[in-house]
């Protein structure tokens, strides 16, 4: 069931009492739910708030954040609509739960990483940073946004059968040309999330908390 903010979701407030503590926007991969990445969020930043929505598109019964036409081929028109919808949800959740919208840092895996990348390219005001695990180029906008050193980590696998090294480098270049401060970390594995991903993301995130 979709709630009054537009997405079925979980919100957990920050455990830290100081102001400015970030909120992690957890974005699951294909077939996941709003529960899948909660443990990951606590591993990355135990004191941060957590906002974890469930994607509203179903592909053979599996939740996703936007439609695809085939493996690796995205429905760009649907992606644009879903990106705007997710950005509006973040803003509504920030007002409802009273967290700082510019302190939202996305942590997305696969399909979730791809819509986080789309937010960075189409609705840059929605995020203050992003961790992209196994991300592809979601789309190339007609005009690049103007980021002011928005921190972005791309953590991809060198043996990933779904995301090539060239695709990763294209994404990094696209975001850098938009003004984001991009770090790329390579893992030895494939499309799965590994302890190395988590440890690297936690180290990258520490200065931002």
What does this protein structure show overall?
With 209 residues, the chain is of the alpha/beta class. It has one domain: Rossmann fold (3-Layer(aba) Sandwich), CATH 3.40.50. The protein has five helices and eleven strands. The chain has helices at residues 38-44, 76-97, 111-122, 165-177, 195-205, and strands spanning 9-12, 23-27, 49-53, 57-59, 62-64, 68-70, 73-74, 104-109, 129-133, 151-157, 181-187. It has a seven-stranded mixed sheet, with helices on both faces. Strands 4-5 form a two-stranded antiparallel ribbon. Strand 6 (68-70) and strand 7 form a beta hairpin. Helix 2 packs across helix 3. It is globular, with a radius of gyration of 15 Å. The mean pLDDT is 94.
Through-space gap between termini: 33 Å
What is the CATH topology? Answer: Rossmann fold
Which regions contain 5 or more consecutive residues with pLDDT less than 50?
none
Task: Enumerate the strands of the largest sheet in spatial order, edge to edge or round the barrel.
Answer: 1-3-2-8-9-10-11
Overall number of strands = 11
Please tag this protein with its features:
single chain; 209 residues; alpha/beta; Rossmann fold; seven-stranded mixed β-sheet; two-stranded antiparallel ribbon; 11 strands; globular
